[in-house]
Structure formats: C-alpha cells, structure tokens
Write a structure and sequence with these properties.
With about 400 residues, the chain is of the alpha+beta class. It folds into four domains: about 60 residues; about 100 residues, 2-Layer Sandwich (Beta-Lactamase), CATH 3.30.450.20; about 80 residues, Helix Hairpins, CATH 1.10.287.130; about 160 residues, Histidine kinase-like ATPase, C-terminal domain (Heat Shock Protein 90, 2-Layer Sandwich), CATH 3.30.565. The chain is built from ten helices and twelve strands. α6 packs parallel to α10 and α7 runs parallel beside α8.
Length: about 400
C-alpha cells in the first residue's frame, strides 16, 4: 500500500511538471507570437513610411519615376512618368514596363541592369510622332525597405538635348566645310602663281580676282558667325526708333541689286511705325530677307516689302515671286548653313547663315518669324514683333 501511495504521488508530480512545462511553453509561444506581431507591425509601418517618402520624393522630382516589382509590374509611378509615357494619372500602376513604354529595348535594358545591381543609364529612341528620346536610369532597391526587392527606373525626356547636340555637330561640320572650300581654292591658286603663272599677266590677273573673291567670302562667313553669336548670346540693346524709316532705307539701298537682277522692288509702309528694339539688328533682319528675296527671284519677277501694325505688334513682310521652297525643306530653312538650292547659294556668295541670323534676332526680341511658300510660286517671310515700350 505504501508503494502504491508513493507511485501515485510520483505520477501526480510528473503530471504537475508536465502541466507547468506546457503552461510555460504556451506562455513562451504567446510571447513569441506577440513579439512577432509587434515586429510585423513595425515592418509594415516602416514599409508604409518608406513608400510615403518614396511618393513624396518622386512627386517633387521633375523626372519620371517608375518602381517595378520582381515580376516587372509597375507598383508606383509619379505624375511626371505618366506625362512622359502618355498615361493619365496613376494608370501606369499594374502594367508591365513593355506595355507602358512599347520599347523592348528598354525592357531588356532594365532586366540586365537589375540583374547586375549596378546603377546605369541609356538613351532610347521612342516610337511615335513626334519621335522622342528618353534617358532611362536604373537603380536597384535592396529588400527590407519595402519588404521585397524593387527596381527604380528614372525617365527624362532628352529630345531637345539630342536636337541641340545634332545642331552642334552639324554646325561644326558645316563651318569646317564652308571654310575649307575657299581656303583650298586660295591655296591652289597661290601654288599655281608660285610655280610660274605669276608672270602671265592675264592668268595672274584672273587668279588674283579669284583670291579676292574667296577672301571676301571668308570675310562674310566670319562676319555672319559673329552676328549670329551676338544674336544668340547677348541681350539686344534696345532703343526707340521709327521702323518705317528703317524699312524705307533698306529698300532704297536694295534697289540697285534689284535693278541688276531685273526684279521689280516695291514698298508699302506707313509714315510712322514706332518700335522699341535694336535698330542695328532689325536692319540686319530686313537686309537678309530683302536680299534673299531678290536673289531667288528670276528676272521680271517682283519683291514686295510691307510694314504695318496688327494686334499691338509690328509686322514686317517680304514677299517674292521667286522659285519658292519645297514643302519638305520648310522645317529646316532656318537652320545654320541649310540651303535649299546649294549650287545657286554658293554662286551668289551666300553663307547659309542669313535666315538663322533672322530667326535668332527675332526670337531675342520675343518675336516670331514664319514663312509661307509654294514651290515655283514664291515665298512670303513674316516677322512679328511685340510693341515693347521703354520705361
């Protein structure tokens, strides 16, 4: 009986110990669960705070920002990204990158950049009209901040930068070409004279005339480059003057050129046309336009110069019955060194900078210049300037 009692006591003690251990285990599990829930809450709050900061940062940035999840779906996009990719509001979210950009090249770039884990950037020619160039930069976000690995794609529209870079390269190439031609001619003639032609008076005289002509051409190019540089980089030195008198003076000085070309030159201008602008630069504009009109008008044709006011603006127009400009050339005629008729321009001594000078001077005065033209029917150049009064 004693052993039975002892056994019962031992069993009771074991059961009590088991219950205590079970209670402790449940307590520990409960504490672990509480700590886990607390940690999850902290992580969720941290992730929410991270995304809030990301949204604030992206919306304050002028660049487009797109955040992609590991599957390549867009989970965040700022307003700038929507504008760049032609989406409204936050409609980008949920789309794949290739659907949003329609660029497999950009898709492949982002995948490769995300795999490398290194920040990188590349320019992409986008489809559509008008054609655009976007610069994409990829940055990887390590997991832990948002709870999962993400990729940030920064988009910037660099179309204008590419256009300016193209103009710069073309400008350097064109300047080199324009200077090389007369210099080569002068050198060839000088070598011929040096080798004995100098003693042939008839040949020498002709060669010297060519040297003078080519030197004058170099001088015109140099002068036009200086004028263009001033128009692009310096604020016009404005003053008040009667632009009607200026227009009349330019037309009067152009009459001899018109008569030599067999072109009828006419003028329509009021007696008083006040303008607050750079008189010298406005003279340059008018001289270039009238000279071009006469140059590209055949004998028995006509050039008409008009000046008037309209809607608080001073308008100068130069119309001719000349060769006109083909439709495909119109968007480029104000580019530096761009010539519609290259052979005729060089024969007449043109530098290819006249219309570019006109455009830059007019825009520096907050005005605009446009052309209306029909091939073989003539052209009309219209300069519109605001009437800005001096203080």
């Amino acid at each position: 009986m004693i052993w039975v009692a002892i056994a019962s006591i031992l069993i009771a003690l074991v059961c009590a110990g088991s219950m205590i251990r079970a209670q402790r285990a449940r307590a520990l599990a409960s504490a672990d669960l509480s700590r886990a829930n607390e940690a999850n809450d902290q992580l969720a709050a941290h992730a929410a705070n991270y995304h809030q900061k990301l949204r604030a940062l992206s919306e304050s940035s002028g660049a487009g920002m797109v955040v992609l999840d590991p599957k390549g779906a867009i989970i965040h996009a700022n307003a700038a990204a929507g504008r760049i990719l032609n989406f409204q509001g936050n409609d980008l979210v949920g789309h794949s990158l290739i659907h949003a950009t329609l660029s497999s090249e950009m898709q492949q770039f982002v995948v490769a950049a995300a795999s490398s884990g290194q920040p990188t950037s590349q320019d992409f020619q986008m489809s559509g009209s008008p054609s655009r160039v976007l610069r994409g930069s990829v940055h990887s976000l390590s997991p832990g901040l948002s709870g999962m690995p993400e990729v940030v794609l920064i988009l910037v529209d660099v179309t204008e930068l590419h256009r300016l870079e193209t103009i710069r390269r073309d400008f350097v190439a064109n300047v080199s070409h324009e200077l090389r031609t007369p210099l080569a001619s002068i050198r060839a003639i000088a070598e011929t004279l040096y080798e004995g032609a100098l003693h042939d008076e008839e040949v020498a005289g002709s060669f010297l005339e060519t040297i003078i002509r080519e030197a004058d051409r170099l001088g015109r190019i140099s002068q036009d480059l200086l004028v263009l540089s001033d128009a692009e980089s310096k604020e016009p030195q404005r003053g008040r003057f009667n632009s009607a008198i200026l227009v009349s003076d330019v037309v009067e000085r152009s009459k001899k050129h018109a008569e030599q070309s067999g072109v009828k030159l006419s003028l329509s201008v009021p007696p008083d046309l006040p303008l607050f602008a750079s008189r010298d630069q406005m003279e340059q504009v008018l001289v270039n336009l009238v000279d071009n009109a006469i140059k590209y008008t055949a004998a028995e044709g006509s050039v008409c110069v008009k000046a008037y006011t309209e809607d608080e603006r001073v308008i100068f127009s130069v119309s001719d019955t000349g060769i006109g400009i083909m439709h495909q050339d119109l968007p480029r005629i104000f580019e530096r060194f761009y010539r519609v008729d290259k052979a005729r321009s060089r024969e007449s001594g043109g530098t290819g900078l006249g219309l570019s000078i006109v455009k830059n001077i007019v825009e520096a005065h907050h005005g605009e210049v446009k052309v209306l033209s029909e091939f073989n029917r003539g052209s009309t150049f219209i300069v519109s300037l605001p009437i800005i009064k001096d203080s």
